[in-house]
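User: Before I run my own analysis I want an independent prediction to cross-check against. Here's the chain; please return only the structure tokens and, at the end, one sentence I can use as a sanity check.
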Amino acid sequence: MNRDGRGLRLTCLPVLLGLSLNSAAFAQEQNIEDVQRNLAIFSGILEESLDLNESTGLFGMSLGGVESTYLSHQGAVLEIRSPLANRRNRMGLASLSSAMQALQLRQNPFEAMRSRAAAPASTSTQSLAFAEAESAPAGIYQQLMDRIANIDYSLVAQTAMQQAAHSARSLRALGELDDVSFDDLNEQINNIRSDISASITELRQIEQEVRAQASTSVATEDSADSSLSMRLEELLQRMQPLRDQALGMAQDLKARSEQAEQDYALAWIEDLAVFEADLYQTLCEYGSTLSAIPEDQNISLILKDLGEDRGENRRTDQVHVVRKSDISACGRGEFDSDSLRERATRYSY
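Assistant: Structure tokens:
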């Protein structure tokens, strides 16, 4: 009888062990489901309180949201995407435009014009013609060529228009110009560019005529075509105001762009501070929603693309690791949301 009873107990042991393991697995599965429900509810609360559902994307799509993950024995990870990241990208576009302006200015327009104008003649015939022109009583052709070689108006004006165009795009990226204002400004820039191109074309035509007459002239003072000098003088008088207009527009737009970038960056930093304050206030007020997560675990918040700028336009995430026990204490009124933020571990990664 004892032997049979012992055999019965040994036979039942695997069954009981299997039931125990199944019960533990079922309990763990039930706990994971509770955590998932908690996280789904809390994610919705975060999206609502932080205005993450704001439709500012293409075709009215939301740029924000919360994605959650639970790590057993560690805690929950909430990945938060905010419209602030998109606004930071717009600021990055403006900075890129400024960098392009600086790159354009690395080349000295005066040197470029002088190098081109001082290039040697392509044939020995042209060199001989200028040598003969220099021996003329008045040397009028060489004087005209020297004047043309020293003209910097065209390149300075063209560079100014490049600056103006970059600044206009920067202002648009920062929201300082609407589509209508941007189109009007572009039209003004293009009109000045067109006038500059026309002046350059006329200048090149005078230069060709000077070269042609220098190579065929008898090189006497009486045979020199004085009309070329008069045409060049008239052209320079028209180019000077055009140059001043181009420089004035470029300087004005550059100053506006730099100020807009500063204002935009300052506003973004202030909005980020408000966003973080609202985040911790929400943790305090609604942290009890995460009741299925043990008190000895953490709630990790990853703010996408809101971390420090590490250079070369490489953005990082801002990570906040908060103890669940601190969130519960804040919810009970033991300390406020500012203190909760101070207790958290924060870094960029």
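Sanity check: Residues 146 and 234 are 17 Å apart (CA to CA).
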